Amino acid sequence: MSTRPGKALETFPNPRAGRDYTIRIHIPEFTCLCPKTGQPDFAEMRLEYVPERLCVELKALKLYIWSYRDQGAFHEDVTNKILDDIVAAIHPKFMRLTAEFNVRGGIYTTLVAEHRQPGWQSPAPVTLP
Fold it and tell me: Which member of 20, 32, 34, 77 is catalytic?
């Protein structure tokens, strides 16, 4: 596998396809460029998903995220694009991407984008005594 940025999202078979479970991935160093000024934008992203048949391979995800470093993108667009690309690669039952962008001009921006397979419902939370 390459150690250069790229848009290819490799996958692997879900090792526990018969069970709903959540995968949480913390991406603390996302960067892209402001499309207006060309200055860098920094964000912390949190990806959560319930896999169906496939999982995203982490090194491929890292290289995919890295590929945005020199691209101009509005926060709203890049967050939804990343979600769409990962959903297209693995077709999860549920996926949420939260992007917390650092301050720009005195304003912090947080975006939350979600995908849910039609008919899939989250299991009820368990409350223990």
Answer: 34
